[in-house]
Each structure stands twice: as C-alpha cells, then as structure tokens.
Amino acid sequence: MSIKYIARFLDRSTPPHIVTLILLAGLSALSMNVFLPSLPNMAIHFQTEYWVLQMSVAMYFAVTAVLQIIIGPISDNLGRRPVILWGLALFTLASIGCIYAPDAATFLLFRMCQAVIVTAMVLSRAIVRDVVEADQAASMLAYVTMGMAVVPMVSPMIGGVLDEVFGWQASFWLMAICGAALFWLCFADQGETKSKTGETLREQFGHYPELLSSPRFWGYSLASGLSSGAFFAYLGGAPFVGTEIFKLSPSELGFLFGTPALGYFFGNFISGRYSTRVGINRMVLYGACISTTATVASLVVFGLGFGTALSFFGFMTFVGIGNGMTIPNATSGMLSVRPHLAGTASGLGGAIMIGFGAVLSALAGIILGDGSSAMPVLWLMAASTVGGLGAAILVIRRTQAIGA
Predict the structure, then answer these.
(1) Along the 404 residues of the chain, how does pLDDT read in single tens digits?
(2) Distance from the Cα of residue 14 to its chain's centroid
(3) Do 335 and 125 meet the contact criterion of CB atoms below 8 Å apart?
(4) Would you say 234 and 363 are in contact if contact means Cβ atoms under 8 Å apart?
(5) Domain spanning 210-402 has what CATH number?
(6) Where are the CATH 1.20.1250.20 domain residues in the chain?
(7) Would you list the DSSP string of 37-101?
(8) pTM over 0.90
(9) In 3-state terms, what secondary structure has residue 167?
(10) 3-class secondary structure for the chain?
(11) Residue 17 region, left (φ>0) first, then alpha (ψ -120 to 50), else beta?
C-alpha cells in the first residue's frame, strides 16, 4: 500500500520534496541539449569532423535506453536513494571528464558516461508512484515533467550564450555544478521511499517477464511511445521542413521549433490540475485524441495545398498539449500495473518510449530528401498518433474487462 505523501524539505526522514523531484527531472533534460550550440566549436577544438561530435547525441540516447532497463530493477532491489546519489556523483565526474578530454574519442566516452543522469528521470517518476496512488501520481508526475518541458526550450539558448562568453567547456561546467549541487540536495532531502526487497539482482531482473506479459503495461507503454513518437518524428524532420521547404532563417526556425514544448508545458499543467479528478485512463484517451486530431488536421491542410510554416509548427503545439496529457498519465498507469515493480516499469517504459522515438526520428530523416514536401513526415506523425490512440482505447477496454 502506498504511504501518504508528506514531505518536509531537507528532512531525510520523509520522502523527497516535489521541488527536488522537479530538479532531478530538469537536470536530466538539461544534459540532453544544453551543449548542442557548441558542437561546431567543439569540432574545431578537437580537430575533427562535425559529424563525429554529432555522434555524441545518438550515442547518448542509445546508452540512455540501455541504462533505463538496468536502473529500474537495481533501484527496486537496493532502494531509490543510493542509486540516485551514485548516479549524480558519476554524472558530475563524467561532466568534468568531458571538459578535460584530450581528444574526441575520450570526449565521446565521457559523454556516454553522462547518460547515467537518466537515473534522475527514471527514479523521480518511480518515487512518485512509491508514495501516492495512481491518479494522484499522474497529477504529481505532470508537475515533475513540466520541468522537462521548460528546460529543453531554454537550455540551448543558455548553452549558446555560455559558449560565446566562456567557450564550449562552460556548458559542461554548468552540468557539473548542477550535478554536484543536486547531489547535496538529494543527500539532505531525499528520504528512502522503497524498502529493500531482499532479492538478488538476478531475481529482480527476473521480474521483467511479469511486466512484459501484462497487456495493460504494453497498452500504457505503447500509448506513451506512439503518441510521443510524433514529436520524435518532428525532431527528425522539422529542421529539413523549416529550412529547405519554407526557407526559414536559423532564428525563425529556432523561434518556431519550440512550439511543441510550449504545448507540452500546458498539457502537463492540465494533467496536474485534472488527472486526479478525471482519472488517468480518460486523460490518456483525451490526450491521444488531441494529438491525433492535430496531426491528421495538419496532414489534410497540406494535402489540400494550404500548408504553411505557421500551420506546420502551429499544429505541433496541439501535439505537445496532447502529449502533456498522455505521457504523465500513461506513465502513472504503467507504474501502477505492478506497483512493487515501479522502478523496473519506469525504466522499461522509458526505454520503450525512447526506442520508438529513435526509430521514428531516423525514419523522418530518411524519408525526406531533395524535392520532398512536408507530407512524408506528416504521414509518419499521423500514423504514430493514430497508433497511440488505438493503444489508449485498448488499455481502457482491458481495464474494464478485468475490473481494475
């Protein structure tokens, strides 16, 4: 049974304060893209090709996906507190390693080590499910993940300014300082929310079949993964659509590119406000409906020949709103299927979502080429959201069938 959520700030005898959880999720988001404006200068510094440094993005996400599968069972076995503290400590050291890396290969090695910060994202979600019931968990998760919507909007701008004033290393100093500060905060504030199971790690990993055999776990995971897949396809295709089709300048593209994150922020706010009252299943369904309607409408507008840059990016705002309603509620659902495996479910569900994202982002890049219109990527986004809506409907039917 979940305990009542009573958190006193900087009191290790209580669960971590929600501010601490928001900062954990925010640092995980910050590390993804704050250094991206520095890639050209980093290529010059390391005397290598730009694409070599750009590999740091793909390699980071690949390691992130693998780590999510591992971190969950370890935290279910050992507890959330030690795993988060170790993750923050290793992230801080890896950030410093990136700064002093003598060559590109060493930098890429330390950059992959930085992916350990995914611990903060995975376990901030698991902690929420440790301390509250499913509907309230969806509400809390929405507020926690609002930080993950805001940070990606502003972190590239921060990284760009830091690069111009102090050099490319400044972004990694920022990550190292934030990692050390958050280590202190978690040490002082984070009480343990998960008792040790007494099982060996092998036995803990043996619980994966229990999750993978659950139709509801797959339903929530697919609803989250496919709904957010439209956003990942957008990440892979929007730069091409903006620059090659609509001839936007870098500043114009940068301004419009953040529209889904803005929508995601408001979608999370709606989830935080209404999930407890409405229920997670209906919120997942409503969010999937909004995302699907937006992608299909954009596809129809372009198919009729009325598509513009404003319509392409404007409809993505509504995709963001739908994702902001779907993802926290679907996450709460997948963590609630087997509450005693919340950490394992959080990691596995996150890996599934990133896996879908990586595939769809790559597909968007492949299907767009010289002479392409925006239609191929719009078809991909529409198909993804329709699949997410179908998964939402199936999980509701399954829930009704078992009376959960």
Answers:
(1) 344 566 678 778 788 888 898 899 889 888 877 887 787 788 889 998 867 776 777 688 778 888 888 887 888 788 889 999 999 999 999 999 999 999 999 999 999 999 999 898 888 878 887 777 766 777 777 777 776 667 766 777 788 788 888 989 999 999 999 999 999 999 998 888 777 666 666 777 777 788 888 888 899 999 988 988 888 888 777 777 877 788 877 667 767 777 887 888 889 889 888 888 888 899 999 999 999 999 999 999 999 999 899 999 999 999 999 999 998 899 888 888 887 777 778 778 878 887 787 778 778 777 777 777 889 999 999 999 999 999 999 999 988 887 65
(2) 27
(3) yes
(4) no
(5) 1.20.1250.20
(6) 18-190+199-205, 210-402
(7) GGHHHHHHHTTS-HHHHHHHHHHHHHHHHHHHHHHHHHHHHH-HHHHHHHHHHHHHHHHHHHHT-
(8) no
(9) coil
(10) CCCCCCCCCCCCCCCCCHHHHHHHHHHHHHHHHCCHHHHHHHHHHCCCCHHHHHHHHHHHHHHHHHHHHHHHHHHHHHCHHHHHHHHHHHHHHHHHHHHCCCCHHHHHHHHHHHHHHHHHHHHHHHHHHHHCCHHHHHHHHHHHHHHHHHHHHHHHHHHHHHHHHHCCHHHHHHHHHHHHHHHHHHHHHCCCCCCCCCCCHHHHHCCHHHHHCCHHHHHHHHHHHHHHHHHHHHHHHHHHHHHHHCCCCHHHHHHHHCHHHHHHHHHHHHHHHHHHHHCHHHHHHHHHHHHHHHHHHHHHHHHCCCCCHHHHHHHHHHHHHHHHHHHHHHHHHHHHHCHHHHHHHHHHHHHHHHHHHHHHHHHHHHHCCCCCCCHHHHHHHHHHHHHHHHHHHHHHHHHHHHCC
(11) beta
Q: Which of the four CATH numbers 3.40.50.1380, 1.20.1250.20, 3.40.50.2300, 3.40.630.30 does domain 18-190+199-205 have?
A: 1.20.1250.20
Distant-in-sequence, close-in-space partners of 201: CB < 8 Å, separation ≥ 6? 73, 74, 77
Query: Identity (one letter) of the amino acid at 152?
Result: P
| Owner of token pair 């507890």 | 79
Q: How many Cα atoms sit within 13 Å of 93 on the Cβ side?
A: 8
Helix (H, G, I), strand (E, B) or coil at 305: coil
- Look at the block and give the residue holding tokens 């705002």: 317
